[in-house]
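Sequence in, structure out. First:
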Amino acid sequence: MILRRRLRIALRNARISLGESQKDVAEALDWSPSKLLRIEAGSSNISTVDLRSLLAHYNITSSERVEELVTMARFARRQLFNSYSDVLKTQYFTYLQYETAATVIRSFQPLLIPGPLQTREYAESILKLAHRPFDTEEVIDRRLQARMERQEVLLKDDGPELFFILDEAALSRHIGGKDVMLRQLEHLLIFDGKPEVHIQVLPFGRGEHSGLFGSFIVLEFPAPEDEPIAFLEGHLDDVILREDPEDVALYMEKFWSLEGLASPAGETSTAVLATMDRIRRS
C-alpha cells in the first residue's frame, strides 16, 4: 500500500507539473474521468499498459524512471491479508497494508487493549460484541484469524517498533469476564523488557486528557519521502485516514503529550499486577 501511495503521488505531481486537470488527461487518453480519479486516489490499481501510456503523456521518457514506476506498480498489487478482504472493511484492509510497511507504530487506546497485544479469547470477545446482525460465525472466525496473523506480522523479530499508551480503563474493564481479562493482563506481562515493544499506562489520577475523544494510530515509514499517516479508529474496525501533514502532526503531538502524562514504561508491570489483584478480589 505504501508503494501505491508513492506511485499515485508521483502521478498526481506529474499531472500538476504539466498544468493539466484530471479531465484533460482522461480526454487525451480516451479514459473515463473516474478511472484517473480512482488511480490518483489510490482506490484502484493501474495496469502496466495504462501506466506506460500515462507516463508518455506526462513526458516521462527516462527509461530508468519509467521502469522504477512500473516496478512500483507491480509490487503495489501484492497485498498481505488478501484472503480476508471479503470479511474486512475496505478502510481497515487499506490500513493493514500501510501498517505492514511501517517501521514505527504509535497507538493510543482509551478503552480496549490494542489488537496486537490481545489474547485470542479477548479478541474473540471483542469481535463477537462488535459483529453485525448478518455476520455468520465463519465471518467472525476469519476476522479473528486475520487479527492473529496481524500479530504475527507485527511482533516478529524484525517487525516495527511499537509504542502503546493505554488509559487505565483499558486494563480495568472486564472484557470476556474475569478469567479472560486476567489471562489478557497476564499476557501483557510477557512484553515487559522487550526492546521493540513499549507499553505505558495513563492512570485515572491524571484526570481529563486529550485522548478521551477516541483512539488513534500514527504510522512512520523508513523512506524520507513517505510522510507519516494517522488513522482514527471506530466501531467494527472503521478507520479514517489522515494524510495531510498538518493533521498528522497534530496527532503526533497529541501522542507525545499523552506519553508525558502516562506512567513510564518501566512501571507498566506494576500497574498490570495491581489491576489483576483488584479483579481477583472483586
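Second:
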Amino acid sequence: MDYQKLIEAHRNKKADVTCAVLASMRNRDSEFGIFKVDSDNKVTEFREKLGEKPVKCISVENSGKSNDSVHNNFLGMGIYVINRDVMKKLLREYFPRANDLRSEVIPGAISLGMKVHAYCFDGYWEDMRSIKAFYQANMESTKKTNIGYNFYDKDSPLYTLPRHLPPSLITDAVITDSVIGDGCILNTRVGDGAIIEDSILMGSDAYQMQDVQANGIQGKDMDILIGIGEGSHVRKAIVDKNARIGKNVMIINKDNVQEANMEAYGYTIKAGIVVILRGAVIPNGSIL
C-alpha cells in the first residue's frame, strides 16, 4: 500500500478518522471487522463479522445516521488514519476506559457522528494471522501467473534491511517455481535425492559441516545435521529454523490430518500443513 494515497484521501475528505478497507470480499473471515459504507465512502456501521449486529458504544447515541440508501460492506484492514486532536478527545473525554481501537474507539467515533470515512484499497494485502494464511501467501509469491505480490515490480519496490549474507550456492539441483533467499547452500543442507514440494524452509542460524563428528564434536542427534537429509520427501510443509530432518524421511501428511499437536515429536499440523518446529529433530526413516 502507498500510504501517501491513504493520507491524501483522508485530507481531501476532511475526515476525522479514515479506515482502510479491502475492495474485495474474497476473504470473509477477517479479524478486523466489516465496515458498512455509503456512496460517499462514509462509514455508517461497524460489525465484528458479517451477519452480526452493529457494534455500538454504551451510553452514546448515533447522531450521524446517513440518509443514503446505497451501502456496501467492506473488510477492514486494521489500518487507520486519525487526526491527533480527534484521538485525544476519543481517548481522554469520550472513551477513557477503552482498551481496543478497532472494537471500541472506532465504533465510538461512528456513534458520535464523527466523519469516519473508508479508503478502499484494491491492491495486494494478506492478513498473516494464521499458519494457513502465511503458507498461502508464500506459495502465491512463487506463481508464474496470477502472482499475489510481485517482489520485482520496479514501480513498487520493497524496502527491507539487508542481512549481509553471502550469495546462495546451488549445485546439482533441479528447482522450479521457487524463491531462494540469500546465504543458502543447496547441496549439503538439502541432501542428494531429496524432494521438496510446495513447502517453506526457514533456513538455519548456523551451518554444520559434514565432517562435524570427525572433528570430535559429538552429542545427542549430532549424526543428523541441520537441514534435510538424503532421500527425504517434504510436501506442503513449513520447516522452521535449525530443524534436523534425517535421511529417507517422508513429511507428506499421508493420512491428510487437518489438526494435530505433536510438539513432543517436533511437529504440529495446522489446516493440513505440517509445521516442523524450530530446532526439531526428525529421525531417519520417519513418516509424518
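Remark: The radius of gyration is 25 Å.
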